[in-house]
Amino acid sequence: MNDTEKEIIEESIKALENVREKNPLTNCITNYITINDCANAILAIGGSPIMGDDPREIESFIEIVDALVINMGAITKSQIEAIKLGTNYATKINIPIVLDPVGVGISHLRNEIILELIEKSKLTAIRGNMSEIKAIARLIDLDEVKTSDINVSKGVDVSLDDEISKENLKYNGKIVKALANKTNVVVIASGPIDIISDGKITYACENGDSLMPKITGSGCMFTSILGSFCGANEPLIGSIAATIAMGVAGGEAAKYVRKENSGTGTFRVKLIDYLSKMDKELLKKEAKLFEIEV
After folding, report:
1. Which of 158, 189, 254, 283 could bond to 209 as cystine, CB 3.0-4.6 Å?
2. 9 vs 33, 174, 206, 244, 252, CA distance in Å?
3. Residue 105 maps to which CATH number?
């Protein structure tokens, strides 16, 4: 780990401390499948969740929050209206907006909404799996991605061909960086290795565990705490810190599960436990962050 990477980890520790000190109020327009876990993850990391998604009051909620999280997991007609009203108002009053483009590429409706959010809202960060990031790159005609490179996702899961590995890290890093540069948004691609870029500098994080995609909601929880980190910090450091924190919590939870010979239900609970136990010593000890030259 070089001096710059060590400095980024120190800044990430400070970002975690900022979340704990500021207790950012984070409004999540998210899906009913994982809403409880998302709220508990925010509480565990030190934020304060509010799950307002009624279009009749969403602007009132945006008035008081520190960040807005949009999760496209199981959208309803009412939520779509709230998403549009909420992001428009958040853009107007400069509230950070984090987008989780779940299932982009699956339907025309999702593509249309996500493209509209990218073009008309001032997004702070986009977090998705690599299939979703590629699908967005295709929607906005990103030169670095060819139509033939886009794989069809398995529902809302990443295509096996798009899983981030050491072999394809630079190629995928190039796409993430180019998308971040074109949209002026911090982009996080999640996977066995996470990639984070603001369009100028690109980092990879090797924390996490293979158990994380075995439970429903680990990605939704990640996006939710990302909102809290962006509500208390500048976007790139907040995004890096959230990525490390989620990965470290997943890794520690997996160690516990394997030691106790328990299963995915225990892993889900321990993941939230370790988010709540996250501190500077654990983050500094376990962080596996490095810069990618792309």
Report:
1. 254
2. 33, 22, 13, 9, 18
3. 3.40.1190.20
